[in-house]
Amino acid sequence: MRHYALSLITVVAMSYAAQAQESRPTPAGRSVVYAPRGVIATSQPLASAAGLAVLERGGNAIDAAVTAAAVLNLVEPFMTGIGGDMFALLWSAREKKLVGLNASGRAGSLMTREELVRRGHQAMPPAGPETITVPGALAGWAALLERYGTLSLAQALEPAIQLAGEGFPVSPIIAFEWNAYGSPLTDPAGRALFLPGGRAPAAGEWFRNPDLAATLRLIATQGAGALYGGDLGRRVVDWLRQLGGFLTIEDLQQHRVDWVDPLSVAFRGYRLWELPPNGQGIAALEMLRILEPYDLKALGHNSADYIHLVVEAMKLGYADRDTYYGDPDFSKIPIQLISKEYATLRRPLID
Fold it and tell me: Which of 181, 173, 178 is nearest to 201 (CA)?
């Protein structure tokens, strides 16, 4: 009788839980988070916590974003950091305008078509030291803080420096991605650092990166110039030269960020803003132009016709991206890809 009674109680409880789930005000059954003074979202809790702490101490959104990005450099090493690029799209309440920043780096000056052919390449290698461009992210962080932040670069880097020195537990999804992206590493130094013991850290394992802590500490002391022409930059260039890379110290010294005017397209009562090339964002704007005349709602969300139409528009947008986008210093887009007139020409190609 005792077991029967417990089973009956369990069934009744499950029935009430199911009814409550159906009547909950949100699809996920979770409360909306209300944050009247600020909110931050990243792909890793430690980065979000670092940015939130900045907001709680009175910093602004730019301070929090740079701080969180520096932490992501540590906890998601397979993504991007001071060795990668950075793009930013922000609303300046002071200037009452939308601002764009392109902090992507340029190709090394030693890379020429002739040199690539001499090395036996028929196309640009997809990975390896020959593909490494000037690291633009650090310059972007510094530029954002200088123009719109309230923290110094050193202050924004401090949480990442502390975590890199003390270490952190690797979270499950990052452990999975770390293993997938870390396995192809061929550089001995890179493998020793990011694949300790010959493998990526498993979920829950503690990982420290004292080398990154020392690098960020040097930047905090000397400023971004430590990379763009200083001792850190020289070490990077010398190591890449041994591996067959194309960067020179002059390439780092000459790096600059570009403040750019964002582009936009209106769609169904909304306006989507993106950065101009060499960023890829305007592909999304072109896709919306192509989809503009269609009644997507009538097709039914994720119906076969809906998905087919959206995928066809994406294919056209990506084809134009691959054909026309490039470094604006060396290539000019010959047509207005996000104009209604061009969308009219592309739309009949939908099969």
Answer: 178
**Phi, psi torsion values for 89, nearest 5 degrees:** -130, 115
Instruction: Flag whether the pTM goes above 0.90.
Output: no
Tokens of 218: 């040097």
CB 320 within 8 A of CB 282: no
Model pLDDT, residue 1 = 44
Q: Which two tokens stand for residue 260?
A: 């750019």
Q: What is the tens place of the pLDDT at every residue in 24-52?
A: 777 777 888 888 888 999 999 999 999 99
Distances from the Cα of 32 to the Cαs of 20, 28, 96, in angstroms? 17, 10, 29
- DSSP-derived pairing of the beta strands 168-169 and 206-207: antiparallel
Question: DSSP E strands: which ranges in the chain?
Answer: 87-92, 97-102, 168-169, 206-207, 258-260, 263-267, 270-274
DSSP lists the bridge partners of residue 101 as 88, 259
User: 258-260 and 206-207 as β-strands: parallel, antiparallel, unpaired?
Assistant: unpaired
Quote the tokens at residue 328: 């604006």
Q: Which residues of the chain have pLDDT under 70?
A: 1-23
The set of residues, in sequence order, having a beta carbon less than 8 Å from that of 175 and lying 6+ positions away, is 200, 201, 202, 203, 204, 205
